[in-house]
Design goal:
Strand content: 25-35%
Largest sheet: 5 strands, antiparallel
Distance between the termini: 20 Å
Strand order of the largest sheet: 5-4-3-6-7
Mean pLDDT: 88
Structural class: alpha+beta
Radius of gyration: 28 Å
Shape: globular
Number of helices: 16
Length: 749
C-alpha cells in the first residue's frame, strides 16, 4: 500500500491544478482513511527523505523545481523539438527541448539534459526548457518501415505516429527488397545534425499494404511473442495426450457434473472456450448460479517451461484475423477448451441468490463437466427475441433463466455504483484476399451483458474467499480517481451544459452517462469519463475496483488467455486441496513476487491492446486510401490548439481537422471549457458535437487521417447550451485563477 500512496502523492503534486497544502490536507484530498494515515505518512516521509517532495513555507507540500541536469526518456515531435520525461519524480512532467538542441535523439532514448531556462507559461504555470547534452542509451536499434526510393538513394520510412526521420540503407538487393516493401532495418550509425541514420535491412516482411505483411509488421513493432519453443510444445503435447478424464484417479477428488445442463457463449470465431454456465433453483427456490472455468492448473504446473513462457507472454493477443495464444493451441483450443460433448476439468464457483439478487452463499469445487451446447452471442440474442431454431430443448429454459438472473444482478450492481461505459468496439471485415472490406461496431446485444455479469460475480466470489483466507494473490485493482481530476471533469461537463456535482461520486457519474445515452454526445462524454479514471492493473494490493464498485476483485474466469487468472486458480486450488500450509504441494507466491508479476502482466496487457488498436488503425487507413473525397459521419472527441479530433461512428477511427479548415476566423482553444471558439464570429465547436467530414488525405505510415468539415461550422452543439460566447480570450463564467507554479501531469476491467 505504501508504494501506491507514493504514486498517488506524486501524481497529485504534478496535477496542473494542485495548490500546495499541508500533509494532513493532502491525505484528505487523496481520500486516505483515518486507519490508513500512518501508512500514508510513512510513504510521504520516504519521498521527502529521498528528495522527491519538499516542504515549503508554511509546511506545505510541493515538488522540487527542475535545475541542473536531469536524466529522462526523450520524446520527439515531428516539428523538430522534443521533451525529456524525467526518470525520477520532478516538479514538471517534461523538459522542453527546442529544435537544434536535441543532439538528434530519437523517441525512446534515455538522455541527460541540462535545464537552461525557466519562464512563466500559460495560466501561471512554470515552463522549463533545456538541451540534450548526452545520449546515455538508445531506446531501440531496430525499426519496421516502408522501403522507398528517393533521388538521394534508398530510405526506410519508419512506421508509427512517433517522430522518426527516414533511415538510409545500402545494398537493398542483398535481401531482394523492392520499392514499397515493408522491411525490418537495424541501425548501424545513428543520426547526426548533418546526416540521417544509416541502417541495414535484416528482414523483408512483404509488400506494404498486404494483410500478412501488416500483421508481421505489428508483431515486430511491438515485439510480440512468436512460436513456442520445443520444450513448451513437448510439455503441451504430453499434457494433452495424457489427459484421461475417465480415469478414476484423475477424477476422484472432482465433482461429476457431466449430467448438468451447461452452456458456453462466445463470439462466432472463438475456439478457446474457458467459461461455461449452469443455473438452477435449489430446494428453497433460490437461484444457484454455477460458473465453470477451464482448469488450466491441471495442465500447466508451476515452474515448468510452459509456465515460464505463459508468464512471459502474460496473455493471449487478439489481432484482426489472428490470435497469438498464451498457451499452445493443443491446450488453448484443445483439452483446456470447454468444447461441447467433451469431458473437461473445471473449477466451479457456485453462488446462491435470493429473488433480489442478494448473495446468500458461495462455494467452490474442482469438477468434471460436459458442455451441453456451444452457443454464440448472436444465437442467444435471437433466441431471447423469440427465434428458437438451433437451440436444444433442455437449453431453452436455461437461457431464459440466465437472462432473468443477469438483469437482477445488473440492477443490484447498478444500485451499488457500477459504471457502464458505452464505448463500442470495432470489428474489421476482411475479404478473401485479406484486405479490409469494411468495418463496423461490434455486436453489443444483451447476451454480452449476461456473461459479463456472471463473470464479474465469479471473479468477486473467488477474491472474497482468498482474501478471507489471507492468501497472497494477484488482484485486479482500479484505484479511485483523485479529487482534482474529478473537479476538472465536473468543470468541463458543466461547461458543455450537462449536470455534474463539483466533486462527483460514482452515482453522479452513472447519472451523467445515463443522461447522454443514445445522444450524439454519448461517445465524447464516455471518452472524457474514461480519461478521468485510473487504469485498472494487476497487483496484490487490496484497494478494490472503483468502476465495478467492488471492494474485493480478481480475475478468475479466463485462465486459458490470462496468466493472472492462472495464478488465482493455483491459489484457489491450494484451498480446495487443503494444501495452503504446505510449501511442497501448495505453491503460492509471496507479495513481492506477485507485485513484480503484476507489473509485468499489466504491461503485456497494455501492449496487446496497443498492438490490436494499431493494426486496426493501419487496416482501416489502408481501406480509406482509396476513399479520399468521401464523407464520414463523425463526432468531436478531442481538442487542441492546432486542430480538433473527430471519430467516425462506424469505423471508430480518428481524424484531424486543422483549425484553419473550420472557417475564416481566429480560432482559440479553451481546454477547461472543452471547446474552440472563433474570436470574430463567436462560433463554438465543442466536445460531443456531430460533424460530417470529407477525407482529405491518408498517411498510413504516420497513422494520420486528415479531414475537413463538409459544411461550414455553425457553432451549434448538441451537448448543452452556453449562456454567452467567450469574451477577451476566456470563456464566459470561467473564473480567473490564481497565479501558481505547478504544471500538468498525465492519465479496463
Amino acid at each position: 500500500m505504501r508504494e501506491l500512496y507514493k504514486k498517488k502523492i506524486i501524481k497529485m503534486l504534478k496535477h496542473a491544478d494542485y495548490e500546495p497544502v499541508k500533509v494532513g490536507q493532502l491525505a484528505k484530498a487523496l481520500g486516505v482513511e483515518t486507519g490508513d494515515y500512518e501508512e500514508f505518512k510513512r510513504a510521504f516521509d520516504e519521498l521527502h527523505h529521498a528528495g522527491h517532495v519538499i516542504l515549503g513555507d508554511g509546511s506545505v507540500v510541493g515538488l522540487p523545481g527542475l535545475s541542473g541536469k536531469i536524466t529522462g526518456t526523450f520524446r520527439a515531435n515531428p516539428r523538430g523539438f522534443g521533451f525529456v520525461v524525467p526518470l525520477a519524480p520532478a516538479a514538471h512532467v517534461d523538459l522542453f527541448i527546442p529544435p537544434g538542441e536535441t543532439m538528434e535523439a530519437m523517441t525512446g532514448d534515455v538522455v541527460e539534459a541540462k535545464v537552461v531556462e525557466k519562464k512563466p507559461g500559460r495560466e501561471g504555470q512554470i515552463r522549463y526548457s533545456g538541451r540534450v547534452i548526452e545520449i546515455l542509451q538508445r531506446g531501440k536499434n531496430r525499426f519496421v518501415g516502408t522501403l522507398t526510393i528517393k533521388p538521394e538513394g534508398w530510405v526506410v520510412v519508419p512506421d508509427g505516429s512517433g517522430s522518426m526521420a527516414p533511415i538510409t540503407v545500402d545494398d537493398v538487393t542483398a535481401k531482394n527488397a523492392r520499392d514499397k516493401d515493408k522491411v525490418v532495418v537495424e541501425i548501424l550509425t545513428y543520426p547526426t545534425e548533418r546526416y540521417l541514420a544509416r541502417g541495414v535491412i535484416i528482414e523483408v516482411l512483404g509488400k506494404s499494404g498486404r494483410y500478412e505483411t501488416e500483421i508481421n509488421s505489428i508483431i515486430h513493432q511491438f515485439q510480440l511473442p512468436g512460436e513456442f519453443n520445443d520444450s513448451c510444445i513437448y510439455q503441451a503435447h504430453k499434457a494433452a495426450t495424457e489427459f484421461a478424464p475417465d480415469d478414476f484417479e484423475a477424477v476422484r477428488d472432482r465433482d461429476d457434473i457431466t449430467g448438468k445442463t451447461i452452456v458456453t457463449i462466445d463470439p462466432p470465431d472463438a475456439k478457446d472456450f474457458d467459461d461455461a454456465i449452469s443455473l438452477e433453483k435449489d430446494a428453497q427456490g433460490n437461484w444457484l448460479l454455477g460458473v465453470h472455468i477451464a482448469d488450466v492448473t491441471h495442465f500447466v504446473p508451476p515452474g515448468t517451461a510452459l509456465d515460464k513462457e505463459a508468464k512471459e507472454r502474460g496473455n493471449s493477443i487478439y489481432l484482426p484475423g489472428r490470435v497469438i495464444p498464451m498457451l499452445p493451441e493443443m491446450l488453448s483450443n484443445g483439452v483446456c477448451s470447454l468444447q461441447p460433448d467433451q469431458p473437461r476439468f473445471v473449477k466451479s464457483a457456485y453462488i446462491t441468490y435470493d429473488d433480489q439478487g442478494q448473495i446468500l452463499s458461495r462455494r467452490y469445487r474442482n469438477s468434471v463437466m460436459r458442455s451441453t451446447q456451444r452457443l454464440t452471442y448472436q444465437q442467444v440474442d435471437r433466441f431471447l427475441k423469440g427465434h428458437t431454431k438451433d437451440i436444444k430443448p433442455e437449453v431453452a429454459p436455461l437461457l431464459r433463466d440466465m437472462d432473468t438472473l443477469a438483469r437482477i444482478i445488473e440492477k443490484r450492481r447498478d444500485k451499488a455504483g457500477m459504471l457502464h461505459l458505452d464505448l463500442p468496439e470495432i470489428d474489421i471485415i476482411l475479404d478473401e484476399s485479406g484486405r479490409v472490406a469494411d468495418a463496423q461496431p461490434s455486436d453489443a446485444s444483451y447476451p454480452h451483458t449476461i456473461i459479463e455479469m456472471f463473470m464479474v460475480e465469479a471473479n468477486e466470489a473467488v477474491a472474497v474467499i482468498l482474501d478471507r483466507l489471507n492468501v497472497p494473490f494477484i488482484r485486479r485493482i482500479h484505484p479511485e480517481p483523485d479529487t482534482l481530476t474529478m473537479q476538472n471533469l465536473s468543470e468541463l461537463v458543466r461547461a458543455l451544459g450537462l449536470s455534474l456535482p463539483r466533486l462527483p461520486d460514482r452515482k453522479a457519474l452513472q447519472n451523467l452517462l445515463q443522461s447522454v445515452k443514445g445522444q450524439s454526445s454519448s461517445l465524447a462524454i464516455n471518452l472524457v469519463v474514461l480519461r478521468s479514471l485510473e487504469k485498472a492493473q494487476y497487483s496484490p494490493l487490496s484497494i478494490g475496483h472503483y468502476a465495478l464498485a467492488s471492494s474485493l476483485y480478481c480475475h478468475f474466469t479466463s485462465p486459458i488467455r490470462r496468466y493472472a487468472d492462472l495464478l488465482v486458480h493455483r491459489a484457489l486450488d491450494c484451498y480446495l486441496r487443503g494444501t495452503l500450509e504446505s510449501a511442497d504441494e501448495g505453491w503460492v507466491p509471496d507479495n513481492q513476487e506477485l507485485a513484480d508479476t503484476g507489473r509485468h502482466i499489466t504491461f503485456t496487457e497494455e501492449r496487446a491492446d496497443d498492438a490490436e488498436n494499431e493494426l486496426k488503425t493501419v487496416l482501416i487507413l489502408q481501406m480509406l486510401v482509396d476513399k479520399v473525397g468521401e464523407e464520414l459521419d463523425c463526432v468531436v472527441t478531442g481538442l487542441t490548439n492546432f486542430g480538433i479530433f473527430v471519430k467516425s461512428r462506424k469505423l471508430g477511427i480518428e481524424g484531424l481537422v486543422q483549425l484553419t479548415d473550420l472557417g475564416p476566423d481566429q480560432w482559440q482553444y479553451h481546454p477547461k471549457q472543452g471547446c474552440v471558439v472563433g474570436r470574430h464570429s463567436n462560433r463554438i465547436v465543442s466536445l460531443g458535437q456531430p460533424m460530417k467530414v470529407r477525407i482529405v488525405s491518408v498517411n498510413v505510415s504516420a497513422r494520420q487521417l486528415n479531414v475537413t468539415p463538409v459544411v461550414p461550422v455553425l457553432g451549434e452543439t448538441e451537448v448543452g447550451k452556453r449562456a454567452k460566447p467567450p469574451k477577451h480570450g476566456r470563456v464566459a463564467h470561467q473564473p480567473r485563477r490564481k497565479q501558481r507554479g505547478q504544471k500538468r501531469g498525465k492519465r479496463r476491467r
